[in-house]
Write a sequence for this structure.
C-alpha cells in the first residue's frame, strides 16, 4: 500500500492477483517526482557517489524498525556495476551505516530498466538467483532497491526468496 492509503493501490491489486500467496509490505521514503528524478540521474547515471549520503539519516530511521531482519540490496549485473563504478543501493546503505548481505545475484546483463517501456519491464523474466552458499530459509528480509516503478524487479526478488523458504519479506525503496 502507498503511504497514507486506506486501500490497495492499482499496482498492489495487480500483484496480488499474480501472486496471491505473497503479502507485500512496501515502504518508500519519497514520491518519485522531477526533483528526485534529477537527483537519481546525477547519482546513478552521472556517477556522483557523494550523493549516496543525501538520504542517509532518513534511511537509517526508516529501517531502524527492521533490526531483526536481514537487509538485502537488489543486485546489479557485474557489467552494469563496472559501467557505473558502484552499486547505487549498496552505496546508500553504506552511507546510512546499515549492514547488508548480498544474498542475490543477477544472472545476466540486460538493457537498463530506465530504457525499457512499462510493458517490457512487466514481462521481464526472473533476473536473479541466490548467491552461492547462501541459505535464506527461515530468514526475515528487507529487500532494498532505489526506485519502485512497476514493481516487477521487487517482485522477482520476493518470488525467488519466498520459494526458498524465507519467513517474511518486506521491501524498501527511496522513491515510488
Amino acid at each position: 500500500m502507498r503511504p497514507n492509503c486506506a486501500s490497495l493501490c492499482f499496482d498492489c491489486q495487480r500483484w496480488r492477483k499474480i501472486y496471491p500467496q505473497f503479502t507485500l509490505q512496501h515502504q518508500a521514503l519519497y514520491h518519485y517526482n522531477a526533483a528526485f528524478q534529477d537527483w537519481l540521474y546525477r547519482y546513478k547515471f552521472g556517477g556522483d557517489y557523494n550523493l549516496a549520503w543525501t538520504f542517509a539519516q532518513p534511511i537509517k530511521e526508516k529501517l531502524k524498525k527492521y533490526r531483526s531482519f536481514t537487509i538485502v540490496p537488489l543486485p546489479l549485473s557485474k557489467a552494469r556495476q563496472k559501467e557505473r563504478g558502484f552499486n547505487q543501493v549498496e552505496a546508500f546503505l553504506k552511507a546510512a551505516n546499515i549492514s547488508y548481505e548480498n544474498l542475490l545475484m543477477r544472472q545476466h546483463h540486460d538493457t537498463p530498466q530506465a530504457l525499457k517501456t512499462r510493458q517490457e519491464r512487466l514481462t521481464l523474466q526472473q533476473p536473479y538467483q541466490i548467491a552461492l552458499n547462501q541459505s535464506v530459509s527461515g530468514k526475515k528480509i528487507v529487500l532494498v532497491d532505489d526506485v519502485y516503478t512497476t514493481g516487477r524487479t521487487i517482485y522477482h526478488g520476493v518470488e525467488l526468496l519466498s520459494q526458498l523458504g524465507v519467513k517474511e519479506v518486506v521491501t524498501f525503496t527511496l522513491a515510488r
In short: The mean pLDDT is 87.
